[in-house]
Amino acid sequence: MNRALTLKWFAVLGLASLFYLLAPRDVSPQMPLYLGMTSAAVIIWTFDLLPAVAVAAALTFLYLLTNMAPPEVVLGPWTTVLIWTTFGAAIFGEAMEKTGLAKRVALRCMLLTGGTFTGMLIGFAIGGIILGLLLASGFARTVIFCAIAVGIIRALDIDPKSRLSSIIVIACFFAAAAPTMQFLHTSESFIWSFQVLMKAIGGNVDWWEYLNHACFINTIYVALSFLTIYFMRGKVQLPEGRKLKLILEERLAEMGPMTVSEKRLLVLAILGILGFMVEPWTGVNAVYVLCLVALFCYMPGMKIMEPSSFNNLNIVFLVFVAGCMAIGFVAGEVGANKWAVSSIIPFLKELPPTLGVLCSYLAGVVTNLLLTPFAATVAFTPAFGELGVQMGVNPLPLFYAFEYGLDQYFFPYEGVMFLYIFTTGCVTLKHVIPTMIARCIVAGAFIAVIAIPYWTFIGIM
């Protein structure tokens, strides 16, 4: 074990012990141990000391062995729709990658917007929104766009450690992540967190109502994300701008005409979307429709996926998702959620609704630095209902602003999607952080100047 690794493990033990010692004792007897174990897991994820899935599984078992919460609470994530949304989205993601449908959509969008740097950004943005409509998995979209980005970088002989290389990969990340709140079904985690909020407040917002709440302003958010790249790029330009268009044309020509498998997959994807659209009238949970439709990809007559390939489906990721969610589930059991809410309510109650929404955005940014987005969502989403009641406002804007805060990333450990772009070897952290900081500031201004006035205009504030 080298010195750096030893220091990291000492940091894990030291910080976890600090959280244990500083934890409030009057909340519950389990609170100190909960904070100690959970902080240790988060720090191990931060330093990438052990496989993320293994840490998530170990944390789940430790919660059970220490009687931190009953088994039905610790293992509760497996009964939620998020696990099964992730399952269905994983199938669609693999099918779209295998058939080339997602790649075709993205390439076509980029080709239609020209072969310039600006055109590339616009193409990524439009492709991201369209794929967000078709594919309810931010991670799958990240994988697809990263493959396209790496292809562009290699074809143009761009140094993978250069600023330009990082910019192209960040653009592909924004294409996958920025449309997360575009539609109610665009992200597996957002589908689930929205249902948690509705259960907490005893309300109901269907697909069409949400479209009114978020689609328009999120399109602006996507555009602002890409404008951040445009203005932060400095003097960087694509080498041989015309060559990009030729490369895109070649890649599209290599794929040939749209295959029968792609057309069938497109029909299945549309059926999955329709499940969300007609849910207000059918009363059928659209998540289960999505999963069932996804499984049709393996039907022999469909010729989309080989039935035998189901065994190769990467569903071990579900263990990581469930482990992250368990952090939030157990937090509710040991009283961490109520403690956090009771600590901030006196402060927020004194603020006007506008500042309350901005504080929710900042809370999302800070929370994402401390927890994974999954854990943060589970831990704090139910609290927005209570916050709304205490502040006398609709909790939806508070929740939306918090989710925008969770979409701000700075370091790889903060989210699986953001971590994945670093596995390409074509992005450097020192080139990424300035752009992400600028985007965080722009997003805060977006909440204040665009989102809040819009939510006031449509009557949810």
Order of helices and strands: HHHHHHHHHHHHHHHHHHHHHH
CA gyration radius, whole angstroms: 22 Å
Helical coverage, percent range: over 70%
Query: Helical stretch count?
Result: 22
Query: How many strands, what sense, and barrel or not for the largest sheet?
Result: none
Low-confidence stretches are none
Look at the structure and give the mean pLDDT.
85
Strand content: under 5%
Number of beta-strand segments: 0
- SS-derived structural category: mainly alpha
In one word, what is the shape?
Answer: globular
Span from first to last CA? 55 Å
- Multimeric state: single chain
Describe the 3D structure.
The chain has about 450 residues and is mainly α. Among the domains are: about 1-50, no CATH class; about 80-310, no CATH class. It has helices at about 5-20, 30-45, 50-65, 70-75, 80-100, 100-110, 115-135, 140-155, 165-175, 190-200, 205-230, 240-255, 260-275, 280, 285-295, 315-335, 335-350, 355-370, 375-390, 395-405, 415-420, 430-455. Helix 8 (about 140-155) runs parallel beside helix 21, helix 9 packs antiparallel against helix 11 (about 205-230) and helix 17 crosses helix 19. The longest helix has 29 residues, at about 430-455. The chain starts with a helix and ends with a helix. The mean pLDDT is about 85.
